[in-house]
Design brief:
This is Endonuclease III. The protein is an all-alpha fold. The protein contains two helices and no strands.
Length: 60
């Protein structure tokens, strides 16, 4: 998605609807903690799997 924090933020601000911008940071943290975990991602239960740029690195 991006090489640095500023680039990631810029891209997210372009695609996240205004009404969700207040909460999106917290939601992404929770998503990383419980669904997109490093050792064994739970791709089968991921609601944003279609947006994933790392499918080739994970097993579904």
């Amino acid at each position: 998605m991006g090489k640095n924090v500023d680039l990631v933020e810029e891209k997210l601000l372009k695609v996240v609807p205004a009404e969700f911008k207040v909460d999106v940071h917290h939601w992404l943290i929770l998503h990383g903690r419980y669904t997109c975990v490093a050792r064994k991602p739970r791709c089968g239960s991921c609601i944003i799997e279609d947006l994933c740029e790392f499918k080739e690195k994970t097993e579904i």
